[in-house]
TrEMBL record:
KW Signal (keyword) present: yes
Keyword Metal-binding in record: no
Gene name of the record: LOC100187514
UniProt signal peptide: 1-18
Molecular functions per Gene Ontology: carbohydrate binding; pattern recognition receptor activity
Gene Ontology CC: external side of plasma membrane
Protein's organism: Ciona intestinalis (Transparent sea squirt)
Protein name according to UniProt: Uncharacterized LOC100187514
Length: 202
């Protein structure tokens, strides 16, 4: 059985030439206080990237794990040496005293396709390693995404065409792709990973 998988990420990206995405990640500590629930910080990659990443995902936590603070992170700007984030305290709608906050980040540079607010992305469209669904799902999560759910016909067409263009078919006329949705043959229903009905074909 041949399997190709793809991941889906939430952010905007531009298309570059490379077929093989370059992934990087790291942690960076900022010393930050805020009088309001939201604050801005700059996170430095602390490594050399060949170009501005197409996508950055980041989370933030108090460096001292015994502190109760919880933060949401929004990426405001992606630059060559750093990226700018908005850090919002979400356990309470208040500011916080100065403390070290660790930002864990992940970036990639590679080919993808934007559909609405999603990025469809094959980590490697030439790699035909056979994977079971759990391995494929874990691979996506490890790369900052998840297996894609196809919501309707319009999205199916976009995903299908992206697959046709991206996959290197070689001598095989077909590929198998893992999706986030599941199919129940007994009830003939497709369910997305969020529990809602999925696209079932026309
Ligand atoms: C923080 O992020 C979580 C997960 O994305 C979301 O459910 C929640 O609404 C966010 N909180 C705020 C205050 O934006
Ligand atoms: C294909 O992907 C698998 C799983 O990530 C990896 O172990 C393998 O080395 C890859 N093969 C090639 C030829 O890149």
């Amino acid at each position: 059985m041949k399997c190709i998988w793809f991941v889906l990420l939430v952010e905007v990206m531009s298309v570059v030439d490379s077929h093989r995405p370059l992934t990087n990640g790291g942690s960076y500590e900022v010393s930050l206080f805020s009088t309001k629930a939201k604050s801005i910080a700059e996170v430095i990659y602390m490594m050399c990237l060949p170009k501005v990443p197409d996508y950055v995902h980041a989370t933030a936590r108090p460096s001292n794990p015994s502190l109760p603070h919880k933060f949401n992170v929004t990426i405001l700007e992606i630059k060559k040496l750093s990226f700018i984030v908005e850090i919002e305290r979400v356990d309470q709608a208040t500011g916080w005293d100065r403390m070290p906050i660790t930002v864990d980040w992940f970036s990639y540079i590679g080919n993808g396709l934007v559909y609405q607010n999603l990025i469809l992305w094959f980590p490697d469209a030439t790699n035909r390693t056979t994977m079971n669904r759990n391995t494929a799902s874990k691979y996506c999560i490890d790369n900052g995404g998840r297996l894609v759910d196809i919501v309707d016909k319009a999205m199916y067409d976009v995903v299908y065409n992206y697959c046709r263009q991206s996959i290197v078919f070689g001598s095989d006329g077909y590929v198998r792709i893992w999706l986030g949705s599941s199919y129940n043959p007994a009830t003939d229903t497709v369910t997305q990973s969020n529990g809602k009905p999925g696209y079932h074909g026309d």
